[in-house]
Specification:
Oligomer: heterodimer
Order of helices and strands of chain A: HHHHHHEEHHHHHHH
Low-confidence stretches of chain A: none
Shape of chain A: globular
Number of strands of chain B: 12
Strand content of chain B: 15-25%
Largest sheet of chain B: 6 strands, parallel
Mean pLDDT of chain B: 88
Helix content of chain A: over 70%
Strand content of chain A: under 5%
Distance between the termini of chain B: 48 Å
């Protein structure tokens, strides 16, 4: 009984530990510092997107345009990141700004038109992909400066730079959601929009904020990805939104809104990363990898609903 | 009927919204009209073929209507139907899929409009085929690896999207060569989905599990080869591992020039694009043409990369 109770309380975290333990028994390379550095570096881009979409999902919304935003912001940054043209701050700043603007656009349409976020972001997803192709003329943009490539490929005291970015963003997002007024408003809007409005919360402003955060983080992810693969690609990020949403859901964010944590999402991101890495280490065919990943997503949601029933 | 016609014109206009085909000025004599449907204008290699077609068409005074099938066989069939309705002289199709694009060929032939397949094949035989044999490209790449390793060692292979014609044929070519060299072992193979970032992740994971056991990497396209290369460079292993890929895109040629990528295989987009238009003109004018115009692949290494960089 005790075990079941623990499993209910810590749900996905326990699953994460169990899967990691199993993998470390079957694959001797799994539990090494170098392997974990790789897992976390690889997961960092999905983590940024998943953090952003966690904010959105908690308010009861969804953001399907993440992957396209990664492409647009990545191409934008790449266009400005050729050696000896501009200082490295400019492509980074331009990438972030583009993401922020696209997020604001999402938020603006959603709050003004009252169209479902699913539809609006489906539209901006397609628009974004088109823009990325127009800007790049359908070709990858290469020959980026070394200082720009450092963001995704360099390290500080042996720690890869993407991991440092991940740690900083994780801290900021956690604090925002847990300790600030905005964080409380986000939960309130997702829990019960009418009640939130009645209690004087400007619901539209809160929604604008979450889509802007999502866009900004997608911009950061785009810059990071472009720098990591040292080229801006119009096709980059296809399907990333689904990985990010999956990570948030696995981490306990409810798609009906009102619940979810950044820590939970991080565990979800790492779980996906660990499974991808572990199955690669074991040389499992990618066909099976997809089946396993799908089963885990459904399992996580079942666990979550089970958890909620037992709480109430 | 009038309505149908205007809908067709409108749809062609919409499909053609992102192509750069140039309408040739009317100069009395009747222009040859060619309809082109392409697999995807999001693919650099296809964009290169398309650019070359436009250039050649302008040179030969051919009117080109080119549209993007966006990887969807159904859309491609509809595009061919609309070409038939417009009574173009010749159709050029860069098929989305071996089986699913076949009905388009059948329909064109039934309407007595010649159809040319460019770059990849359909199961139904078209009037003419212009392209290269993907199996051959992988043979060339794997043969290079075998020669470099003296026929002995461990190879990993990165697949494209599983089930696509190019993936199937490149795997087949690679395995044919592996069969000839029993001491050349395929240590692991996995899909990188034609994507640079995915392949970089995959290679990092392989380095973790196999470390210095890997002697060579064969990636089924350059994007993936460059991703694997980046992972090997980051791990400080590049000197010990041979990386070979296919397509000879600009980035890959630069990498070969620098000596980081050991080899790539050049698939001639220009000759494929120009060849398709030339064949179309010959067919339209009733001149003799080659039923299968095969454009040969070429291995690109540091020794001969210069001639490809100029192209």
């Amino acid at each position: 009984m005790q075990y079941i109770k623990t499993l209910r309380q810590y749900g996905i975290f326990v699953v994460f530990i169990i899967i990691s333990l199993i993998l470390s028994f079957i694959s001797p390379q799994f539990l090494t510092v170098s392997n974990w550095t790789i897992i976390i570096t690889q997961a960092s881009i999905n983590a940024l997107l998943a953090f952003g979409v966690t904010f959105v999902i908690i308010t009861g919304g969804i953001d399907l345009s993440l992957g396209s935003m990664v492409a647009v912001t990545g191409v934008t940054a790449a266009m400005l990141a050729h050696p000896d043209t501009f200082p490295v701050v400019l492509p980074i700043f331009a990438g972030l700004l583009t993401g922020l603007l696209m997020g604001i656009f999402n938020g603006f349409i959603i709050t003004k038109s009252k169209i479902a976020p699913f539809i609006v972001t489906l539209g901006t997803m397609t628009i974004g992909r088109g823009l990325a192709l127009i800007m790049s003329k359908g070709r990858p943009i290469s020959n980026l400066s070394d200082s720009f490539n450092f963001i995704g490929g360099g390290d500080v005291f042996g720690i890869p730079f993407p991991i440092i970015v991940l740690a900083i963003i994780f801290t900021i997002c956690s604090i925002t959601l847990k300790k600030t007024l905005l964080g409380r408003y986000i939960y309130a809007v997702g829990g019960n929009e009418q009640a939130a409005r009645a209690s004087g919360i400007n619901v539209n402003q809160v929604k604008m904020a979450v889509y802007s955060i999502s866009g900004l983080l997608a911009g950061l992810a785009g810059v990071l990805l472009t720098s990591r693969i040292t080229t801006g690609q119009p096709n980059a990020g296809a399907g990333f939104e689904l990985d990010a949403i999956a990570a948030a859901v696995i981490g306990g964010t409810s798609t009906s809104g009102g619940t979810g944590t950044i820590t939970g999402t991080l565990v979800g991101v790492l779980l996906i990363g660990v499974i991808n890495n572990g199955l690669d280490l074991l040389n499992v065919s990618s066909y099976y990898q997809q089946v396993v990943m799908g089963a885990i997503i459904i399992g996580a949601v079942v666990l979550d609903s089970w958890n909620q029933k037992s709480n109430s | 009927m009038k309505h149908l016609y205007s809908i067709l014109i409108l749809s062609v206009f919409l499909f053609a919204s992102c192509n750069q085909s140039k309408k040739v000025e009317n100069s009395g004599e009747k222009k040859i009209k060619v309809g082109v449907t392409l697999l995807s204008m999001q693919n650099e290699f296809i964009v290169n073929i398309s650019d070359e077609m436009n250039k050649k068409a302008e040179e030969l005074g051919v009117e080109l209507i080119s549209v993007d099938a966006e990887h969807q066989p159904l859309k491609q069939i509809e595009q061919v139907e609309s070409f038939i309705a417009q009574k173009v002289d010749v159709i050029i199709m860069n098929p989305c899929e071996v089986e699913a694009s076949s009905p388009a060929v059948t329909k064109a032939l039934a309407a007595k409009i010649p159809i040319i397949n460019v770059n990849s094949a359909t199961s139904t035989k078209p009037t003419a085929f212009v392209g290269s044999n993907d199996v051959e490209s992988a043979r060339i790449a794997m043969k290079f690896i075998a020669d470099q390793l003296g026929g002995k060692g461990n190879v990993v292979m990165i697949h494209g999207l599983m089930g696509q014609a190019a993936q199937i044929q490149r795997e087949q070519g690679a395995k044919e060569i592996l069969k000839d060299y029993p001491e050349l072992k395929l240590l692991a193979h996995q899909t990188g989905e034609w994507d640079r970032a995915k392949s970089m992740d995959l290679m990092q994971n392989w380095i973790q599990s196999y470390g210095t056991k890997i002697n060579a990497v064969f990636a089924q396209n350059d994007e993936m080869g460059l991703g694997a290369l980046k992972a090997l460079q980051d791990a400080g292993l590049k000197d010990k591992v041979i990386v070979v890929s296919i397509d000879a895109i600009a980035d890959a040629l630069q990498a070969v020039k620098k000596g980081s990528l050991d080899a790539t295989v050049f698939q001639n987009a220009k000759q494929q694009g120009a060849g398709a238009i030339e064949t179309a003109v010959k067919i339209a004018k009733g001149q003799p043409y080659e039923k299968e115009l095969m454009i040969p692949f070429q291995l690109v290494t540091k020794d001969n990369v210069g001639q490809f960089l100029k192209k």
